[in-house]
Amino acid sequence: MQVLLISSSPHQEKSSTFLLAKEVLRSLSEEGISGETLHLDNFRIFFCKHCEACHRKILECPLKDDVSMILQKMLKADAILLASPNYINQVTASMKALFDRSAHFIHCKRLEGKYIAGAVSSGSGQNQEVLDYLKYYGAACGAQYSGGVSAQQQFGQDKKDEALRLGKKIAADLREKKLYAEQLQDIEKGKQYFSRVIKARKDDWQEEYAYWLKKGWL
Ligand SMILES: Cc1cc2nc3c(=O)[nH]c(=O)nc-3n(C[C@H](O)[C@H](O)[C@H](O)COP(=O)(O)O)c2cc1C
After folding, report:
1. For the chain, which residues make up each domain, given as ranges?
2. What's the whole-model pTM score?
């Protein structure tokens, strides 16, 4: 089993958010689960042009940057830990740009069966809206949320302990293939909405339509 940590602070290894997320990875490693870290700041991520090429032909994109590699790693991971500092009550622009470029994941619920977790830090300690947004993104892609950890930038042992507990929770979710009934209902609602959209656009978004057919969702 593999957990992918996507960390979006430009401070990279010195980032408070990353240091918190690193504790989650440490805890996962104690459970025998390996982790890989991507610092978004090291990659080129252009803004989505809403050309819809990725809906016509799955994951096709005219923008030649590092996003395709990152999306492939997300598809291979069993769980994804999204770590972002709070930038004006949101994730960083780099994280949002990556999310925008993954619109196909939302149309086809490509993170279904995976778990998402969040790590956020801020100056004020007000992190809930950012964590909620990470959970929302995961659900939009079909993934269940294992939980989140957040802190003010100079955090102490209590927050490290919280991060360690989150690691244990993700490990248990993965091992037990935990199902969260309420979350699955929300994911199903999203699917119902997209089944209408995919049918309406079937002549245009041919590969996404074929994906839905193959999955037996239509
Ligand atoms: C552009 C920008 C916007 C920010 N907005 C907020 C904010 O809305 N609320 C807050 O509490 N902290 C805000 N901060 C502070 C960071 O969230 C905080 O310093 C964080 O711990 C940095 O994490 P890092 O070391 O992982 O980069 C902002 C910082 C920057 C650079």
Report:
1. 2-215
2. 0.98
Question: What pLDDT digit, counting tens, does each position of 85-132 carry?
Answer: 999 999 999 999 999 999 999 999 999 999 999 999 999 999 999 999
Domain 2-215: top CATH class:
alpha beta
- Nearest residue to 63 (alpha-carbon basis) of 75, 42, 45, 43: 45
Tell how far the Cα of 214 is from the centroid of ligand 1, in angstroms: 43
- Mean pLDDT for the chain overall: 98
Q: How far is 139 from 131, CA to CA, in rounded Å?
A: 12
- The residue with tokens 């089944």 is 195
- Determine if ligand 1 sits within 6 Å of the CB of residue 113: no
Residue with CA nearest ligand 1 atom 29: 87
Q: In what order do the strands lie in the sheet with 79-85?
A: 34-39, 2-7, 79-85, 115-122, 144-152
